[in-house]
Structures are given as structure tokens and as C-alpha cells.
Amino acid sequence: xxxxxxxxxxxxxxxxxxxxxxxxxxxxxxxxxxxxxxxxxxxxxxxxxxxxxxxxxxxxxxxxxxxxxxxxxxxxxxxxxxxxxxxxxxxxxxxxxxxxxxxxxxxxxxxxxxxxxxxxxxxxxxxxxxxxxxxxxxxxxxxxxxxxxxxxxxxxxxxxxxxxxxxxxxxxxxxxxxxxxxxxxxxxxxxxxxxxxxxxxxxxxxxxxxxxxxxxxxxxxxxxxxxxxxxxxxxxxxxxxxxxxxxxxxxxxxxxxxxxxx
Length: 262
What we know:
The chain is of the alpha/beta class.
């Protein structure tokens, strides 16, 4: 329900966008080099679980998570807690995010940044690079296979890393066929927005060794982090539990469990 409405809105906006793709590609290729999102996760996950800390103002299911979020301050707090990377929601209607949030977070820290949004066109891919993101999110459930392949290729061409989000084994296979080198398993059902805390553990084994594994949504505490690390994950993407915490830096530090990855 939530996903369909959000995608309809984004696809309608993409269809009315008259900008020329070739011009955006040229512009994207002139932007300063990225900070290496995948490489940072690969390095940080050698001995500890890496944490992608998310700046998220609200959600469709829970409404406002925290009033008065300052993207710069929150990003610096995440960095002080040893977050490896940032994720910034830029969807405005459903999540209260903005491009300004991403810009402010990136300027405030030295961390690589993921643009967390609903990418439905090649223009969206270029926009992510132009606004300063280091990585773009592609949601397998939201894209046809030709779109997933084309968007992934374009992202790599213009210098972006790509996180391909999946929810089941079929989507993991689709991600691999598209050339994904980093795959996320979202434990939140995008139809009901309910969280299945065991989904990522069950699916870890279908993601090949060498591909960066990211568990998304529903990571509550160090016990969850340990379970995911033991299952073979390199990183967790954590949003709500950090945004609502009185001490996000300490939460991040507690999630960086040190057990060697399988």
C-alpha cells in the first residue's frame, strides 16, 4: 500500500521532468570524486560490524520520529559514534526529507553518504551524483529488471556506488544479474511496513561472499547486531532507533560488534 502510492508519485514526477538525460550525465561527470561508500564499508567491516547511520525525520507508518532534526548536528553525532557511512532520506512527502538534508550532512562530516530515496528514472540517478551523494539506492521491488540493469550501469558510469535493496531470494538473484556488488536485505515489508527481524538472517547465505551484505531496518540493539554479524553481514543500516535515541553516538558504538564475520 505505502510503496505503490509512493512510487506512483515519483513516477508521475519523473514523467513530467523535461530535462535532457545527456546533459545531466555530462554534469554528473564533472562533480568532485566520491568518498568511496563501498570501500569504507569493506574496510570498516574487517574487524567490526559497520554502521550506516540514517537521517530520517518521519515515516509513513509512524509519522514524525523527532521534532526539529538538524541534519548537520545529527550527522556529526553519528560520526562521533564511529558510524562508517551516512544515509539521508531525501523524499519530502512521505519522509520529510530533502536534498538540503543531504547537502548539510555531507558538508558537516567526512563520511560517505547514501541518497535514500525512490529511484525510478535515470534522471534520479544523475541527480544523486549531482547533489553530492556517494551512493544511490535501487529498490529491486520498485523496478523492472531492465530498469534495474540500466540504472545500475548508469550509476557506475557516473561514479556512484550502488546499494541494491532486496526482500527475498528472487530479488537477490535479480540484483546479482544486474551486477550488484553491494546488496541490502530490508527486513521491513514495503507493502505493510511491518518488520520481520529474522528475514536478514535467513537470507544472508544467498548473497555470495565478496558482495557487501547490508541488513536494513529493524536493528534495535547489540543483540540484533550480533545476530546479523554472525550471519555474515558487513553492515547494518539503522535509522529510527538512532533518530529517537537521546544518545545516538552510544547506540552506534554498541552496534559495532567485533566478532569476525563469517
